């Protein structure tokens, strides 16, 4: 399960980074895509009990 946990955390971190970058660039489309990816990554992590709240 360790590989899955690490992959889930990396996906959440990448999505958070993409969302932040898109917001800083005032790119509405990229922010929307990144927000959707983050929502999906968080949903998957939570469904499998992966703690990502402290991840940044």
Structure description:
The chain is mainly alpha-helical. The chain has one domain. 77% of the residues lie in helices and 0% in strands. The longest helix has 23 residues. The chain is elongated and about 35 Å long. The mean pLDDT is 93.
Which helices and strands occur, and which strands form pairs?
Layout: H1 2-24, H2 28-47
**Helix-strand topology string:** HH
Quick one: how many beta strands? 0
Q: What would the average pLDDT be, to the nearest integer?
A: 93
End-to-end Cα distance: 21 Å
Compute the number of structural domains. 1
- How many helices does DSSP assign? 2
**C-alpha Rg, in Å?**
12 Å
Shape: elongated
Q: Give the strand content.
A: under 5%
Defining traits:
mainly alpha, 56 residues, 77% helix
Provide a compact summary of the structure.
By secondary structure, this protein is mainly α.
């Amino acid at each position: 399960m360790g590989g899955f946990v690490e992959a889930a955390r990396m996906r959440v971190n990448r999505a958070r980074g993409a969302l932040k970058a898109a917001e800083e660039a005032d790119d509405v489309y990229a922010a929307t895509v990144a927000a959707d990816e983050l929502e999906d990554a968080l949903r998957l992590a939570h469904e499998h009990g992966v703690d990502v709240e402290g991840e940044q």
